[in-house]
Design goal:
54% strand, 2 helices, 94 residues
Length: 94
């Protein structure tokens, strides 16, 4: 009940879901950069593969010359030649 009321308040205030929850937000700029907000941690990091853990799943990034930049507690930037992105849902949000 409390979560339901919280969602109503957030909708009235027009807050984006990523602000009041742990749902990740992924911003992709071309094939060379992506920013992931609300991540939990880095599971694997190689020049050709990055695996990021989020509160609802795992994001796999394949490419070349991949680097991690501008990391904070809440967001991370992946730069390089991004070839593919795969998202594995680990929990059901419903």
């Amino acid at each position: 009940m409390k979560k339901k009321n919280q969602n109503r308040i957030d909708k009235l205030l027009e807050l984006p879901q990523e602000v009041y929850s742990n749902v990740p937000k992924i911003v992709i700029t071309g094939f060379d950069e992506m920013i992931i907000e609300n991540f939990k941690g880095i599971l694997e990091y190689e020049e050709f593969f990055v695996q990021i853990n989020t509160h609802i799943g795992i994001i796999n990034i394949n490419g070349y010359n991949l680097t991690l930049e501008n990391m904070t507690d809440d967001d991370i930037k992946v730069k390089g030649k991004i070839e593919s992105i795969e998202i594995e849902r680990t929990i059901d949000e419903n």
